[in-house]
Write the structure tokens for this entry.
Amino acid sequence: MNSSFGNTARLIGAGLRALLVLTVVCGVIYPLAVTGVAQGLFSDKANGSEIESDGRVVGSSLIGQTYNLPKKNPDDTEEVAVPDLKWFQPRPSNGLGSNTVNTDYSLILSGATNRSGDNPELIQWVKNAKAAVIEDNSTATYKVKPTDVPADAVTSSGSGLDPDISPEYAELQVHRVAERNHLTVAQVDKLVNEHTKGRTLGFMGEPRVNVLELNTALKELTKG
């Protein structure tokens, strides 16, 4: 009886000591070490890849944003958003749903359209998006052809939050952005070229342009 009680006490004591040691190692030392290394070597990425403008954080380079005109009635949830054409526009985000978890805030939900390639609604979305791209980006001196419109200009990404567009879509918007901001086409074209990133390690992915970074640079250019 005493031997059984002693064994049980030893097992409980060993378990508690193991719990204490593992709590300190895994719950305190390891997180502090990882956080310290991340902050020391990858501070920007560890803090969310934030982008600043005028001394304040305006977003993350990892998350796409919309650039729309203010609503005429902020309380009208049915009002259709109108793009602010002085800015470079991102990919469509038809995959974004509305927030039903906390109705006090308009949270962005990541997601795809979940529609097949031959879905009539998806086909109509693409047709409408293509017509809008052609109309919005055509100027008095530059006419967009249907064949000029790249796929990413009319389709959302799998997450609906893609922060990047193709260099082709960025170039398509150059004339419109230049006209709306009273800049030369050469100035805006140079801006796009400066913010075009090649394939990762030279072979992974596709060339891309981060829309938030590009618009932040555009804002600085228009202030000059």
In short: The radius of gyration is 25 Å.
